[in-house]
Amino acid sequence: MRPGRGAPVIAVLGCYGAVGGSVVRRLREAGAGPLRLGGRDLDRVRALIGTGAGGPAGAEAATGGAVTGAAVTDVGGMEARAVADEAVAVDLRDAAALAAFCEGCHVVVNCAGPSSRILDTVARAALAAGAHYVDVAGDAAVRDRLTAAGLPAGSTVRRGPTGQGSAGHGSAGRGSDGQGSVGHGSDGHGSAGRGFDGQGSAGRGRAGRDDAGRVVVLSAGMMPGLSALLPRHLAGQGFDRVDRLTAHVGGVDRFTPAAALDYVASLSDGYATPLAVWRGHQVIPRASRPRRGVELPHFPGRVNAYPYLSAEAERLARSLGFAEVEWSSVFDGELTLAALARLHDLDADTAAGELVRTSRLEAFGRTPYFQMVFRMEGEAAGRPVTRTLVARAADSYELSAAVAVLAAGAVLRGLVRPGLHDAADVLDAGAVFQALLDDPAVTRLEVVDGVAPAVEVEEGVL
Q1: Which long-range contacts link 169-173 to residues 24+ away (Cβ below 8 Å)?
Q2: What is the pLDDT confidence band of residue 49, given thresholds at 50, 70 and 90?
Q3: Which residues contact 198 (CB under 8 A, 6 or more apart)?
Q4: ω into 114 cis (within 30 of 0)
Q5: Torsion of CA 285, 336, 445, 451, to 10 degrees
Q6: Can you tell me the distance from the alpha carbon of 120 to that of 367, in angstroms, rounded to the nearest whole number?
Q7: pTM score, two decimals?
Q8: Which of 71, 75, 77, 3 is nearest to 35 (CA)?
Q9: Looking at the predicted structure, is the pLDDT value of residue 408 above 90?
Q10: In this structure, what are the phi and psi dihedrals at residue 379, rounded to the nearest 5 degrees?
């Protein structure tokens, strides 16, 4: 069945996870729907949908465990309307159940994990059902599988006149008190969008989309995804040329079981090269080393930095012409870092469990935070320029959800052409920045000139 022509049905798989729950909340706040929510535990799905453990009388569907309920939303001051949502029990190992879950949807947003084990399973089911697909994760391995299956690479999003979106006064940003003064920009045709079109249509034809063509957007999360979009926005902030990017990403953040499994898989699947840097427009292996007990600009107190070069960072360097890139994970504490040093002696499931346990201990009694700091050095009007972008949230999962919802909105509004894309290639970086300025989960977002000096307290190999 092809998606209908009424209000778009948006399916969210893994709806009660750390990312999925936030995606559902954001979709409802945007007035999107109706939503079809799926997960293995039907009681948890029902609790999320607000129907209670038993559901409304007579709501059980003959499809084997679906329940519907009415949710009233008030979006942007608009008149509240009733939205019929569905709760569906679906196990990814059950091909028939997964196919039924995707059937009749306009777009399937996959928040289930671990991505390293799911791979292209959900994508293939969504495409077979005639739905578009947005994956919060889904990096190189999923891309390779879908390409091998014949899905063509797509062209980029239809951008606005500036090519950067309308980010407004991006350098003003939101301070650490969360009280930014930046005005709202216009979404325009190149915007990633704040929500969905007011009529709930699928946006057919706005980007010249063939109705028979399906859109697949991968890496629509925090990293990969936002970790390329924010540097793209920063590169457009008054630089004539950018030569060097330094990135520090991390904080006090808890691993979920799925995220931990994906992290363990990334250590050996080619996602990143440990201790490598980008220098002289090429990858230089083992050119850096871990640093312990350093004070990094915009991070509180002493932290530990572990350098690596991801495939996404390499693609970013090539596309923007950076001569140098240095990228590090930041650990605000010792427990998680010590656990990482022991992972090579453990099987994947045991290693993931250790990361979950130690990250929770690390966060105990502390205020969790996740921060991305990008410093760029280059030239403007013949003079050297340094600018830094700082993004901070309570956790990384809210940032992933924000990007996923923006990607789903762009797909539904017809801003992404058919084919296979990465989110960073089709979302407008300036519009994403503007959307995050308005996001209550983002506690700090600003671009500042220059950079505060970093004081290295103690160095040593970790």
Answers
A1: 170/233, 170/237, 170/430, 170/433, 170/434, 170/447, 171/237, 171/387, 171/446, 171/447, 171/448, 171/449, 172/446, 173/390, 173/437, 173/444, 173/445, 173/446, 173/447, 173/448
A2: confident
A3: 31, 78
A4: yes
A5: -50
A6: 36
A7: 0.81
A8: 71
A9: yes
A10: -140, 145
Contacts with 286 (C-beta within 8 Å, 6 or more apart), sequence order? 275, 276
280-304 average pLDDT score: 93
Phi, psi of 435 (to 5 degrees): -60, -40
Sign of CA dihedral 174, 255, 300, 371: negative
Residue 217: phi and psi, rounded to 5, are -120, 115
Greatest C-alpha distance within the chain:
71
Calpha distance 194→284 (Å, rounded): 39
Q: Is 240 left (phi over 0), alpha (psi -120 to 50) or beta?
A: alpha
- Structure token digits, residue 212: 């028979």
Cis peptide before 3 (omega within 30 of 0): no
Per-residue confidence (pLDDT) for residue 212, from 0 to 100: 53
CB 435 within 8 A of CB 192: yes
Q: Nearest CA to 233 among 324, 316, 329, 136? A: 316
Least confident of 137-151, 277-291, 447-461: 447-461
Q: What confidence score (pLDDT) does residue 195 get? A: 45
At 374, list the tokens: 């990008």
CB 105 within 8 A of CB 131: yes
pLDDT of residue 277: 96
Write the single-letter amino acid at 30: A
**pLDDT confidence of residue 243:** 95
Answer whether residue 459 shows pLDDT above 50.
Answer: no
Cβ of 360: how many Cβ atoms within 10 Å? Answer: 13
In angstroms, the CA 85 to CA 71 distance is 7
The per-residue DSSP string of 282-310 comes to: EEETT----EEEEE-TTS-SEEEEEEEEE
Q: CA-CA distance, 280 to 324, in Å (whole number)?
A: 6
CB 48 within 8 Å of CB 41: no
Residue 34: asked if its preceding bond is cis (omega within 30°), the reply is yes
